[in-house]
Each structure stands twice: as C-alpha cells, then as structure tokens.
Amino acid sequence: MLVAQASALYTLGIRDSIMIAHSFKGAEFGPAQQMHGATYTCDVEFCCPELTPSLNWVIDIGEASNMLSGVLAEYNFKNLNEVFPDENTTTEFMCRRIFDGVARACAGRFCGTIRVKLWESHKAWASYEGAVADYTRDV
C-alpha cells in the first residue's frame, strides 16, 4: 500500500514564450531606463496533492497550454509601457500578472497551487506562486 506524504505534490508544467519591449522609471535601473526588448520564457507549474479521480491527472495539458497562450497573447509583441503605463514592468511584476491571468482562466477547473517562473535570460528568472482555489482577484 502506498501512503502519500503530507507535503508531497503532483506537478504538471508547461512552457511558452513572449517578446516584449519596455523601459523602466528610476535611476536604480541604469541603462534599462531606455527602451529595450526582451524574450521571456514562461514556465507555469500546476501543483496539487491529489490527481483528479478517474482521470489521473493534475490538469489537462492541452487546456493548460491554451490558457497560458491566451494570457501571454495579451503581452506578446507589445510595448509594456503602453499596457501598464504607471508601472515598472519588472520580471517580478510580470510574473504576478501572468499568474493572475492563468488563475482566472483555470478558476473552477483546477484547485491547487500555480507557480509562474519567467526567465529573462538563461541566467536570471523571477517567480510567483499562489493558490488558485476560489480565485477572485481583480487586476
């Protein structure tokens, strides 16, 4: 007989990418105050302690991929200064925006935790993680 560990989680991960342009406000950002582009790789992990009964999955991988693609389409090939005119669209900030979009898209279809990891290069990334049960955040 298998016994699940209290902290054990199943995880399903998907990946997509977007290309954006933006600049930052504040001397702390140095040369990034100038308009520049970035190609982000976006990893999203869906985590839950139990598989969906009878299906034995965390979430449908095709459905999850479509949700992420739909969320990223809002930002792909966009100048983020125009999408979020009053914000510094740092990698951390964008992680939360992507999380919010995915959480809204899967409300009622997934109950667990979502982790968004946004890679701005092969060396640097930021992430945001949160629960999506009864997700209702308005952004």
Automatic annotation (TrEMBL):
GO terms for biological process: tetrahydrobiopterin biosynthetic process. Keywords: Lyase, Metal-binding, Tetrahydrobiopterin biosynthesis, Zinc. The keyword tRNA processing does not apply. Its cofactor is Zn(2+). One of its GO terms (molecular function) is metal ion binding. Its EC number is 4.2.3.12. It is an enzyme of class 4 (lyase). Pathway: Cofactor biosynthesis; tetrahydrobiopterin biosynthesis; tetrahydrobiopterin from 7,8-dihydroneopterin triphosphate: step 1/3. SUPFAM superfamilies: Tetrahydrobiopterin biosynthesis enzymes-like. Pfam families: PTPS. The keyword Metal-binding applies. Belongs to the PTPS family. This is 6-pyruvoyltetrahydropterin synthase. The lineage of its organism: Eukaryota, Sar, Stramenopiles, Ochrophyta, PX clade.
